[in-house]
Amino acid sequence: MSENKGKISMTFRLRLTLWYSTLAMSIILLFSITLFGVLKQVMRDQIDENINSVLDDVQDNLTFYVTRNADNEPLYFTPFYPDLRGVSTPGAFVQLWRADEPDFPVNLSGNFMLNNEPFDADALQKEEEVRRDVEVDGTALRVITRPLKSKEGIIVGHLQAAMSLQTVNDATDLLLKIMVLGWGLSLLASVLLGDWIAKRTLRPIASITRTAEEIVVAEDLSKRIDYDGPQDELGYLITTFNGMIRRLDKLFNSQRRFVADVSHELRTPITAIQSHLDLIERYGLKEDDPSLKAVRSETKRMSRLVGDLLMLAQADLGHLPIIESDVQLDSLVLEIFEQALILSKGHVRVHLGNLDTAVVTGDSDRLKQLLLNLVTNGIKYSAEGGKLTISLNTDDDFAHVHIADTGEGIPPEDLPNIFDRFYRVDKARARAQGGAGLGLSIAKWIAEAHHGNITVESVEGEGTVFTLHLPLKDEEPEEDFHAKETRQRFPALRLARKQE
């Protein structure tokens, strides 16, 4: 397992490093190429500017002599440069090629090169300015050839000026070497830095992997990942992972408790049935034998337990449908009140409190089951002569059914767990009364299935109030619930007055 984990981690780490290095080096390479090209072009433009300056100076000092025929028509023009001291710009070589003497240039610079050879022979045949890089005797030159025209537009010669590109070439070669060296060092640095960043970035993921491996090996869901970094994507991932493990831990604990409780709950009636069957087998079956009644009682108890477990299992799987219809909640509360009067058997005084008119959307049978569970729970834990009050009030969006008893109350430390399956505040007493700890779990599921919830308030020694909150239906059909109110409400109100 560790080997596989290391391979997966290293592969992703190497991949992340390569992505980072490739991106960084691509940016550096693009920047280097752009810088190299811009610098080289700027230096060449500077040389061109210097050459043009020389050519402009020479051209401004040129004089043209006109040779004419007998009819005083111009035959050809002779350019003449009067200042023979040469061009003063250092490193500039200037030639004047006259059209009347194409084989003998006039060297206008103080440096003689090539003697009678042009710097760029092909450019002398052009009628527009030509710029070229040429090599003369192993020396790279930048040459600009400019045609000379008379006032009549006749080309009478060419000016050629050249400057060495050696400085530019030396500078660009040095810059290229520096860039190549810098690119190599940057590649090494980006790989090392990328590996460090990848390692640091993946450290929480490696921690998640180690924790998951420890959970699998040790089967210990109590472990959590320690993380004190920012709540970024990794922080959110770790928080989600810890929440998932916490949820799984709770579910596995619930499952273990569930198995233990179910085993215990089923073992008790099975043992009782087995004992009574032994008695029946030993002494025979008599009419109205108490053992037979006990067997029937324990069988019913097991049947109820299995039925409740089956319903919760189907609800967890989503296979328990809710048949939605308009439910007149105040009429349903009155029905529950009537049944509470019967279930109390005078042990508890049952009262009907405020009763607002309310219509909700849901399954009438399931809602009735929910309220009966709460009422039965209140009667069961109320002392002799206690009081149970059922009331219904509404606000703008919700209906609230309150079931308040004056029983022994629930300790504060038990309140968060009372809706857990098989949870009992007083296990011994609840079992003696036949409770399995599933009623409140069923009630909670039914409430949530109807987009509502159940809240509880309790003071130990004074009593408990369960409140069912259900969303009201948007539009209430007035005729329908007036009819239901007339048929069902009056008998229950008469019973309520008798209790009072």
Give a brief description.
This protein is an alpha+beta fold and 500 residues long. 53% of the residues lie in helices and 20% in strands.
Cα Rg? 51 Å
Q: How much of the sequence is in beta strands?
A: 15-25%
In DSSP terms (H or I, runs of 4 or more residues), the helix count works out at 9
Shape: rod-shaped
Essential attributes:
500 residues; alpha+beta; Helix Hairpins; Heat Shock Protein 90; 5-stranded antiparallel sheet; 5-stranded mixed sheet; 14 strands; 53% helix; rod-shaped
Structure write-up:
Among the domains are: 233-317, Signal transduction histidine kinase, dimerisation/phosphotransfer (DHp) domain (Helix Hairpins, Orthogonal Bundle), CATH 1.10.287; 325-499, Histidine kinase-like ATPase, C-terminal domain (Heat Shock Protein 90), CATH 3.30.565. β11 (386-394) and β12 form a beta hairpin. The protein has helices at residues 2-60, 166-218, 233-283, 290-317, 329-344, 364-380, 427-432, 439-449, 478-499, and strands at residues 63-68, 74-80, 92-98, 106-107, 130-136, 139-149, 155-164, 325-328, 348-355, 359-362, 386-394, 398-405, 453-459, 463-471. The longest helix is centred in the N-terminal third of the chain and has 59 residues, at 2-60. The two termini are 72 Å apart. α4 (290-317) runs parallel beside α8, α5 (329-344) runs parallel beside α9 and α6 packs antiparallel against α8 (439-449). By secondary structure, the chain is α+β, with helices and mostly antiparallel strands. It contains nine helices and 14 strands.
